[in-house]
Amino acid sequence: MRVPDTEELDASYRQAAEAHAARQGYRRVPALFRAFGAVGGLGPAMLEVSGVHRRMFPFGDRAREAVILVTAAAAECEYELAIHRQESRRAGLSAAQVAALTGPDPLATPALSATEHACVRLACDAATGRHLNAGAVAALGERGAIAVAAVVGHYRGLASFVAALDLVPETDLLE
Questions:
Q1: Which of 11, 31, 93, 108 is deepest in the core (most CB within 10 A)?
Q2: Domain ranges across the chain
Q3: How far apart are CA 130 and CA 175, in angstroms?
């Protein structure tokens, strides 16, 4: 499905999407952001949610990216995997960690901190619809577990949206 070009977006949303993309270090406005812009107020709302996840995730960029990778892999969402493999490396995860997080056993990822491992444990559970591991909830606290589950829910929703639109993975977004 064709999504609008950046120039076709409402001027105020285009400006917000370009600013958001620039803050992320993207070369251009991703197709996903452009697709959101085609639906009235959805674009600004989704940019805000994305920004909140980045600003408010309590366990740092590495842990957030690990959660996103696990979720995108479980959803088989190549679009999000392409972007977040890049983002994860920028956040400090090694190539081996990225490969393990997107592989068959993310819990075997080497050299994660205890907090990052607890985040991955909860992501594995939430991304596959299982009850959250009590030990991981205890390690992160209830609010921390909710933060992880919120990121998983957001990216599972994005994966469904991306699949419905059949968006092509963007492997060259980061500068």
A1: 93
A2: 6-55, 58-165
A3: 37
